[in-house]
Design goal:
The chain is built from 13 helices and ten strands. By secondary structure, it is α+β, with helices and mostly antiparallel strands. It folds into three domains: 154 residues, no CATH class; 65 residues; 127 residues, Roll (CBS-domain). The strands form three sheets. Strands 1-2-3-4 form a four-stranded mixed sheet. A four-stranded mixed sheet has the order 5-6-7-8. Helix 9 links the parallel strand 5 and strand 6. Bound molecules: zinc ion.
Length: 373
């Protein structure tokens, strides 16, 4: 999802990353605090405003990480794997590789975020109230803002539209009672889309009658709408792919690259018009793969002398599929490992290969057929 992310640190075994787009929102928050919020309410000098804006902004994004950590830690306790947390232009996101298996698990995971923001908001509010008579104004100002923003964040996230936390809570409640996750998702996606349209409308209203800050509401509205649509698409896709075995989508005569050719031969022959991230390689006994990334990492002057056997990776363990494995399992595994094909074996022999391309092709046809029904 995030190609330009920088690794920040690891906490409780969870990697925290920052996407390049986050710099925009960070600077915007610093700017709003330093040149609008603090000057409007407090008698500070410009330098103080800028320093406070910077520090408050950092604590604000630490609060966002705290919120995402709450989701992730609850997910981990439910046995769900969390890849990482990434800060980006629209806030933070926990990259959780699988959907929760039960309505209860989803409810706990979703509610943890807003609860953590309410907790933080109350802590800041408590410090503000207790210290109102003795804390310096330069401390009270940012603490008051942080109390406000965390509580606002909690309320915003509790709006019952997918993919907001409140939408997930809403879906889990529907799911708990009607036992139908697809139907529940559809309803929560619709409330999410209605809210997104409302945000866009509100943004337009602000631009016409107030100022350009409406643009931000329009952007968030579009982002939420897209996220709602793709969540539903994802769910429908998962249901379709969970019903079929890899046998149905595998290529029984996959193209295999010999490991004796040179890297430059591979580049000439296969790199021309393909978007593949990896290729299947055959050696004497085993099936392996070569990553395009690993080819590109190799200095160009070595391409003539190095052979595929020098940079080949072996498929092992979970990479090796059986005919009866589901297409969903294959797709999730390929995406997780960032490889394009997986071999299908029967009695240790290669009987086919599944590729992301083939699975998506099948999915598109099924979805088209489903729509025209
Ligand atoms: Zn959340």
């Amino acid at each position: 999802m995030f190609k330009n992310a920088v690794k920040l640190f690891k906490i409780f075994g969870i990697q925290i990353d920052i996407d390049f787009s986050w710099v925009i929102i960070f600077l915007l928050v610093v700017w709003i605090l330093a040149f609008q919020f603090f000057p409007r309410f407090y008698p500070f000098s410009t330098t103080t405003n800028i320093i406070l804006g910077f520090i408050t902004s950092i604590v604000f994004f630490a609060s966002v990480i705290f919120h995402e950590l709450a989701h992730s830690l609850v997910a981990k306790r439910q046995g769900i794997n969390v890849k990482k947390i990434t800060l980006f232009i629209f806030g933070g996101v926990s990259q959780i590789t699988e959907e929760p298996g039960t309505a209860k698990a989803e409810f706990k995971m979703a509610i943890a975020g807003p609860l953590s923001s309410i907790f933080l908001g109350m802590v800041f509010l408590g410090i503000y109230v207790i210290g109102r008579n003795f804390l310096p104004l330069t401390l009270k100002a940012p603490i008051g803002f942080l109390a406000d923003i965390n509580l606002t964040l909690a309320i915003f996230n509790l709006i019952p539209g997918f993919p907001l936390d409140g939408g997930r809570v809403f879906r889990s409640i529907l799911w708990y009672f009607n036992k139908d996750i697809l139907k529940s998702t559809k309803i929560a996606v619709w409330t999410g889309r209605i809210f997104a349209f409302f945000l866009i409308g509100f943004g337009v209203f602000r631009i016409v009658f107030a100022d350009l800050s409406g643009l931000w509401f329009i952007l968030i509205g579009f982002f939420l709408d897209q996220a709602a649509i793709s969540s539903l698409f994802q769910m429908e896709a998962n249901i379709i792919l969970n019903k079929i075995s890899v046998e149905k989508v595998m290529d029984t005569n996959p193209k295999l690259i010999s490991e004796n050719i040179t890297v430059s031969e591979l580049a000439r022959e296969y790199f021309k018009d393909t978007k593949a991230h990896s290729f299947l390689v055959k050696d004497n006994e085993n099936i392996g793969y070569v990553r395009v990334d690993n080819v590109n990492k190799l200095p160009k002057n070595l391409w003539e002398e190095k052979r595929i056997s020098d940079i080949v990776d072996r498929y092992e363990g979970e990479d090796l599929l059986k005919k009866s494995d589901t297409a969903l399992k294959a797709l999730e595994h390929m995406r997780g490992q960032d490889i394009d094909q997986l071999p299908v074996l029967e009695n240790q022999n290669l009987v086919g290969a599944v590729s992301i391309e083939k699975v998506i092709e099948y999915l598109n046809e099924e979805m088209k057929a489903g729509k025209s029904k």
